[in-house]
Inverse folding.
């Protein structure tokens, strides 16, 4: 599987604080990838490095086959919509489209104007007068009309109301289907990731805890509930993600590629949110101690 984004031992330090450290990551091409993790995991720093907005302190990063933002050709390969969906308040929508055409050699003006028309926006309207959802749609239009190989979206709907968020995600899915984009979408909302993405990466403390096709991850993670027992007695192929115990009962979240045949367990399916939260809430030392046993899905 080819990678549209690859990081090796990647790090970014601000004075004495590391915002990202020793990050190894492969993002597959041709997929809509959800990047999730707790605050401080390094998601925004990673995406800013990928877009060329930041430069690494350590390690390497490649995007679409080359270092980010190393020339006009490389810049043209990546579209970026930042968390605050930046637009210029004093400029009209038409001004934004003209600016996009000036700055991007592959600019598709027909696509941009068609999207603006379908959204019901007035080309003469100033960006500062738009609603949050409309500004987000304008930023998405600018990113798509650039005709990039990779579209990076850093929490693009974080500040939107539920209706505007749903409309944005629906438009994103339609654009991906129509223009065959590779996408990396960072979000705190697993429901948005599940709706729009087909691949997920969970990043905690700069480390990839699990990555893979969403359907595959859901299929191979299970909740086991049964009489209290030592988790070390599980078969070797059942990797424990989390474990909890009462006086009489043990509950495990496990990853396994084979069926669980032990009749003493009640086996329950898990949704993507359950799986993501399990990896996000594990103690940091437990994650590091067990990483060799957790095969990261590629």
């Amino acid at each position: 599987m080819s990678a549209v984004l690859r990081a090796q031992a990647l790090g970014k330090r601000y004075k004495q604080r590391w915002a990202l450290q020793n990050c190894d990551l492969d993002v597959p091409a041709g997929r809509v990838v959800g990047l999730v993790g707790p605050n401080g995991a390094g998601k925004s720093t990673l995406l800013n490095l990928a877009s060329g907005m930041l430069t690494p302190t350590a390690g390497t990063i490649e995007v679409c086959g080359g270092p980010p933002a190393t020339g006009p050709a490389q810049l043209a390969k990546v579209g970026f919509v930042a968390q605050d969906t930046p637009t210029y308040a004093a400029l009209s929508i038409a001004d934004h489209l003209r600016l996009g055409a000036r700055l991007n050699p592959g600019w598709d003006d027909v696509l941009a104007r068609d999207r603006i028309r379908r959204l019901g926006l007035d080309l003469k309207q100033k960006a500062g007068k738009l609603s949050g959802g409309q500004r987000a749609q304008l930023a998405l239009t600018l990113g798509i009309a650039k005709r990039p190989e990779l579209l990076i979206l850093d929490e693009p709907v974080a500040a939107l109301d539920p209706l505007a968020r749903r409309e944005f995600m629906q438009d994103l899915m339609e654009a991906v289907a129509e223009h065959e984009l590779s996408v990396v979408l960072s979000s705190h909302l697993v429901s948005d990731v599940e709706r729009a993405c087909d691949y997920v990466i969970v990043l905690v403390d700069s480390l990839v805890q699990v990555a893979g096709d969403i359907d595959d991850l859901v299929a191979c993670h299970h909740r086991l509930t049964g009489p209290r027992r030592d988790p070390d007695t599980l078969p070797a192929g059942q990797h424990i993600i989390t474990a909890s115990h009462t006086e009489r009962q043990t509950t495990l979240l496990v990853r396994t590629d084979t069926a669980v045949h032990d009749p003493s367990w009640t086996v329950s399916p898990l949704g993507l949110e359950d799986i993501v939260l399990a990896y996000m809430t594990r103690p940091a030392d437990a994650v590091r101690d067990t990483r060799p046993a957790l095969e990261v899905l590629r």
